[in-house]
From TrEMBL:
Transmembrane segments: none annotated. GO terms for molecular function: ADP-dependent NAD(P)H-hydrate dehydratase activity; ATP binding; metal ion binding; NAD(P)HX epimerase activity. Catalyzes the epimerization of the S- and R-forms of NAD(P)HX, a damaged form of NAD(P)H that is a result of enzymatic or heat-dependent hydration. This is a prerequisite for the S-specific NAD(P)H-hydrate dehydratase to allow the repair of both epimers of NAD(P)HX. The gene is nnrD. Its EC number is 4.2.1.136, 5.1.99.6. Binds 1 potassium ion per subunit. Keywords: ATP-binding, Isomerase, Lyase, Metal-binding, Multifunctional enzyme, NAD, NADP, Nucleotide-binding, Potassium. This is Bifunctional NAD(P)H-hydrate repair enzyme. Its cofactor is K(+); Mg(2+). Residues 226-496 form the YjeF C-terminal domain. K(+) binds at N56, D126, S162. (6S)-NADPHX binds at residues 55-59, 130-136, 141, 159, 261, 322, 373, 439.
Length: 498
């Protein structure tokens, strides 16, 4: 699904009306019908609709009309200078007037009356501002938003909670706190950033009839990953395939006390479907891990010639889980980079040890995927964790462009980007917030790369599958561990590809 910005909304509106002749009022009526699907008129029998002067307000007036037609007790409040109504908002406003609807201008004088109505209604619909919000909210608008937040029993926000920037998710002075946001055509970029979490409630996105060609003309190459994407990106297994068809992958992982990370990363690659998986690790933990790994092979760093051959033969290599942030890890990365140009998936200690040596990535002839959590990205970029988390998409894109790596920024709504194409992952939940999850993700992504999935897509698909499994398991379990994910991988991938 395309991620949308305010610019895209206005470009698309113009293209729909000017290039293909869909009048704006038709788009608005589509938006109204789309919104009506999500307003629960079985429960909400009395509703206040609060409208601004732009097209978001126009949507609100249209919704009010349809609610009246359904027999709902509707009070409509218009906030702002009525002479400044947008063309389509005016059409819907005039219709309500002609219908003798209960419509009032909401100003300082009748603010108390409005508050009383808000508190006596089952729900309020916020149609003050959508993608056209331009500056900080002040004056009567601020007071109205405060009143809705204070009095409304249940608040629907149309397209965006009024007060949130649709591009950045930042609060422009004050914002509606919605229970449900009904957004049109795109998942708005601002709703992805963490700052919107407190305000957006449940988010639904409805199509409003924008032709595919127009949407594709104006998007910014930012997407929410969907199940259908994964099934396009992962190679299907064919009848006459053999293990050589599914890639040889190598996992450099583990150290004394961290054998679990090595096991998890290697076993995740096995269960994702790699043809052959080899774990390369410290001699002292090799035995412990190989007892657990029945399908993957193991090799110790001491077997120098064998390690060299394994590196050269690998289609993709994971480095980092449980290796320790030290010069040894860095020298392993160096050694690998000198011998191959296969895709490298670098996680955990691998990322930390590269922080001071980013030039290595730039000079590497193959693709590198870095999978940092915000703390690791902070060490890599010098930005604070709070700066990273308040602007996750742009920070990840910038890091990808400066390092030359594909960045997978972990966290709720993981961001995956090569700096130009960006995917935001919709799956996963906090039941998976426990040790070993990152090692598991590294194994999945490396396996997909080894099977021939393009690295950016492998990273996005890996994140999706990882979270998809956790979403299923967490319906029955309080916590989801890496071993749960590993066991479910073959079933989940089959399900997703079906
Ligand atoms: N393609 C689609 O997705 C469609 C979406 N629709 C809906 O239209 C809005 C966008 O409508 P637009 O008219 O561009 O913008 P808004 O209604 O969100 O806001 C513009 C009005 O708000 C005033 N404004 C802006 N910021 C402030 C502020 N801080 N304080 C006070 N007033 C503000 C602005 O006034 P100006 O003085 O700045 O001109 C406008 O009056 C989209 O979100 C959807 O809901 C269409 O229905 C169909 C197509
Ligand atoms: K709104």
């Amino acid at each position: 699904m395309i991620i949308g910005t305010s610019n895209m909304t206005s470009n698309i509106d113009n293209a729909c009306s000017n290039d293909i002749g869909i009048p704006m009022i038709v788009m608005m009526e589509n938006a109204v019908h789309a919104a009506m699907k999500h307003i629960d008129t079985k429960i909400h029998k009395s509703i206040c609709v609060i409208c601004g002067m732009g097209n978001n307000g126009g949507d609100g007036f249209g919704i009010a009309r349809h609610l009246i037609l359904k027999g709902i007790d509707v009070k409509i409040f218009a906030v702002g200078n009525i002479n400044k109504l947008s063309e389509c908002a005016k059409i819907n406003f005039d219709i309500l007037k002609n219908m003798d609807a209960d419509i009032k201008i909401l100003d300082e004088i009748n603010l108390e009356y409005a508050k009383d109505r808000f508190s006596k209604s089952d729900a309020c619909i916020d149609a003050l501002f959508g993608t056209g919000l331009k500056r900080n909210i002040e004056g009567i608008y601020r007071k109205v938003i405060e009143a809705i937040n204070e009095k409304s029993a249940y608040t629907y926000a149309i397209d965006m909670p009024s007060g949130l920037s649709s591009d950045t998710g930042k609060v422009m002075g004050i914002s509606i706190k919605a229970d449900k946001t009904i957004s049109f055509e795109f998942y708005k970029r601002g709703l992805i950033e963490y700052s919107s979490d407190e305000y957006k409630g449940e988010v639904v996105v409805e199509k409003i009839g924008v032709p595919k060609e127009i949407k594709e003309k104006f998007h910014n190459y930012e997407f929410i990953t969907e199940k259908e994407d994964i099934s396009k990106w992962i190679k299907r297994r064919k009848k006459n395939d053999h293990k050589g068809s599914y890639g040889k992958v190598t996992v450099f992982a583990g150290s004394s006390g961290f054998s679990g990370a090595a096991y998890i990363a290697a076993q995740s690659a096995v269960k994702t479907g790699s043809g052959l998986v080899t774990l390369v690790t410290e001699k002292e933990i090799q035995d412990i891990v190989s007892r657990k790994l029945s399908e993957a092979m193991t090799c110790s760093y001491d077997e120098k010639n064998r390690v060299e051959k394994i590196i050269c033969d690998s289609d993709a290599i994971a480095v980092g889980p449980g290796m320790g942030n030290n010069s040894k890890t860095l020298s392993k990365i160096n050694e690998i980079m000198e011998k191959t140009s296969s895709t490298l998936v670098i996680d955990a200690d691998g990322i930390n040890s590269l922080s001071e040596n980013l030039k290595l990535i730039k000079d590497y002839p193959g693709k590198v995927i870095l999978t940092p959590h915000p703390g690791e990205l902070s060490r890599l970029t010098g930005k604070s964790i709070s700066d990273i988390n308040s602007n996750r998409i742009d920070t990840a894109k910038e890091a990808a462009r400066t390092t030359g790596a594909i960045i997978l920024l972990k966290g709720n709504r993981t961001v995956i980007t090569d700096g130009y194409n960006t995917f935001v992952n919709p799956t996963g939940n906090s039941a998976m917030a426990n040790g070993g999850m990152g090692d598991c993700l590294t194994g999945i992504i490396t396996s997909l790369c080894g099977m021939g999935t393009e690295p950016l897509h492998a990273a996005a698909a890996g994140a999706y599958i990882h979270g998809y499994i956790a979403d299923i398991i967490s319906e029955k379990q309080f916590v989801v561990n890496a071993s749960d994910i590993i066991n479910y991988l073959p079933v989940a991938i089959k399900e997703i590809l079906r």
